[in-house]
Amino acid sequence: MAEIIKMPRLSDTMEEGVVATWLKKVGDKVQEGEILAEIETDKATMEFESFYDGTLLHIAIEEGVPATVDSLLCIIGDKGEDISKFINNSSSEIVEKNENNSSNQLDLVDQINEQEKIDDNENSKIENVEIPIADNISQSDGSIDYITMPRLSDTMEEGTISSWLKKVGDKVQEGEILAEIETDKATMEFESFYDGILSHIAVNEGETVKVDELIAIISENEIDVSKALESYGKESSYVPIEESDDKIELDEYKVEINATNTNSDSNERIKASPLAKKIAQEKNIDLSKVTGTGENGRIIKSDLNDLNPVEETIEKQIQIKENQSLKVDDVINEETTIVQNSSIRKAIAKNLSKSKFTAPHYYLSVEFNMDNAVAFREQYNSIPDTKISFNDIVVKACAVALKNHPQVNSQWNDEKIILNNNVHIGVAVGIEDGLVVPVIKNADKESLHSINSKVRDYAVRAKSKKLRPDEIEGSTFTISNLGMFGITEFTSIINQPNSAILSVGAIVKKPVVVNEKIVVSNTMKLTLACDHRSVDGVTGSLFLQTLKGYIENPVTILV
């Protein structure tokens, strides 16, 4: 299935980007997490990694060609896949954009040449000369940078300021965290791209605004905020210069056309993947002391595995989050309290309502004998530095069973049913505001120990709302487990676009008949909810039979 990759917004002010270097060529295999290209933004040249596995089928933007944010960048899919319809739809837009860029550059050259003619007359007096500069420059107060609500996920339309980590008047350095922003998927840290003073906060904590709306102002010096707000959003990008007897040097305003952004410290720049940088920041790892094993010495995630980061225990982080109280907006009376719906809660309501009322759900309930699974887990956990849960066994068993029943690992489309070749298991995690579903990618290829590590890590970061968008997208099947709360049986709403979700209950001891004798055994009830449009009853039943074989004899999932 073709994945359309668009020019990403890599900074809050980025409107277009230039591909400085393609690190992959058409026909190359691409793995999730590999660096596709280096993209030059309005601030720096940044690495852009793939969120998909597949083959690079098409490159829409050649090196050195500017392209607007969200325009077609490239296409990743299956080798030999027909992508002509995607290419035809985008080519006309790219041509039109390039023509506009060329025209704008010529206009700017004419403006600069005209200004130089004025400057050649040493006796001339410059009155109200309009000089083209960027919207974020103020002649009297130094640099003024308008910070807008960033688009932190592909589906984000609005964001809520969860907390400001800086207050008005504070000094801000590039790279420092300004605020925590709650999107429709998670709460993410938002860092500053500028040095200066936080002069104005336009959106208070708890308030929600659309993407690209003003949220703050950072300035080089103290400014008149009211004038800065008046200047923001004006159509003209010209700032008039007041009359002066002094000769104005225009060289500092000259614009170099078709110049490529370079970094004087590029030779000293630490090459690391975005994921490695994120992990290093979270775990206080100095990347300058790490040897990279990726392409051209790039530091990748695996290079950080053997290091000793500063860690907090899972129990401590969960307890801290649980002790935080809900934000209460208004108390009506002694019996009623109003709590504002969060962006996550709104997204849950919208998505689950759509799923429940559009997908014809039906449910299949089974009961498994867990005696062998209990013995298997005890034996597996006797290995030093190894620990797995029953949920890990269920995740692995489902992943292997789905390879045998691709119809269950599918999604419904009005024109076709899409069978997913990769098995990406979503694991529902309850948080204060509702739930999120982090995804174990290619779970059938992961070991039990690896699944356990990923699930525990996701659970901690889900509760503190630190999951990245790519970690909660792309599931093909979902598991919801309430067994740890003593729930023995329940049903779940399908997490679209999945076609099925498995509800897992608690393991309980009960009398059962084995070989015509009543014995006490460990049992567990599971309920599979299916979308009848894509998964028939027989198909779901056969999947549960296969799953039963794996869970009741878990050693078979290791073969």
Largest sheet: 6 strands, mixed
Number of strands: 31
Our measurement of the CA-to-CA distance between the termini, rounded to an integer number of angstroms, reads 29 Å
Low-confidence stretches: 92-106, 118-141, 235-267, 309-328
Tell me, what's the shape? Answer: globular
Task: Enter the CATH topology name of the largest domain.
Answer: Chloramphenicol Acetyltransferase
Report the average pLDDT across residues.
Answer: 79
Q: What class would the helix/strand composition place it in?
A: alpha+beta
CATH H-level homologous superfamily name of the largest domain: Chloramphenicol acetyltransferase-like domain
CATH structural class of the largest domain? Alpha Beta
Determine Rg (CA atoms, Å). Answer: 28 Å
Description:
The chain has 559 residues and is an alpha+beta fold. It contains 9 helices and 31 strands. The strands form 9 sheets. It has a 6-stranded mixed β-sheet with strand order 22-31-30-29-25-28. A hairpin with a 4-residue loop joins strand 4 (35-40) and strand 5. Helix 4 (314-323) runs parallel beside helix 8, helix 7 packs across helix 8 and helix 7 (390-404) packs across helix 9. The longest helix has 37 residues, at 84-120. The radius of gyration is 28 Å and the shape is globular. It starts with a strand and ends in a 7-residue tail after the last helix. The relative contact order is 0.09. Residues 92-106, 118-141, 235-267 and 309-328 have low confidence and may be disordered.
